[in-house]
Amino acid sequence: MNTSPITSNQIIIIQTIINKDNNLKAAKEDIIKEASGNRTSSVKELLFTEADSLIKGLKKESSFKKELDKSDPCHKMRGKILSHAHTIGWHKKDARGNVIRDKATQKPKIDFDRVNEWCTKFGYLHKRLDKYTYAELPTLVSQFEKVVDNYLNKF
After folding, report:
1. H or E, element range at 7
2. How crowded is the C-beta side of 21, counted as CA atoms within 13 Å?
3. Which residues fall within 8 angstroms of residue 148, CB to CB, at 6 or more apart?
4. Which of left, alpha, beta for 112 (phi over 0: left; psi -120 to 50: alpha)?
5. What CA dihedral angle connects 140, 145, 148 and 150, to 10 degrees?
6. What tens digit of pLDDT does each residue of 76-111 get?
7. Per-residue pLDDT tens digits for 124-138
8. Measured between alpha carbons, how far is 45 from 5 in angstroms, rounded to an integer?
9. Of 96, 93, 129, whose CA–CA distance to 109 is shortest?
10. CB 10: neighbour CB atoms within 10 A?
């Protein structure tokens, strides 16, 4: 194993990639710990080979996310429904009824089971959210927006 220290160029690359993504930014310490085998949580203390592997992994994940966003035209519409679900408080809860939060962002986790339950019970085609096609999603989004309007009009 190469025990050479990380280079300043590697530090810049890692920091740049991590700082572009809020989820990565929030999980930075854990990412560095994993890359170093729990040896450190500081980028500056990574070894050259650890940094090299981390950069390759981060670049691969970044390009995968970009490709995923581009390749799925349904992504925006499903995201709109999930955003509305957050608005009306459809959050995942633990056994005590406390809202479960994402470790990286501390935002409440969406209750996907509840969303899918609504889609299969009340959605116009009665199937899970991920099964709706691009052509079918606009109608489902409109339908869900009515649910949100009704919820908000109660207050």
Report:
1. none
2. 16
3. 84, 87, 88
4. alpha
5. -100
6. 899 999 999 999 999 999 999 999 998 778 889 999
7. 999 999 889 999 999
8. 7
9. 93
10. 20
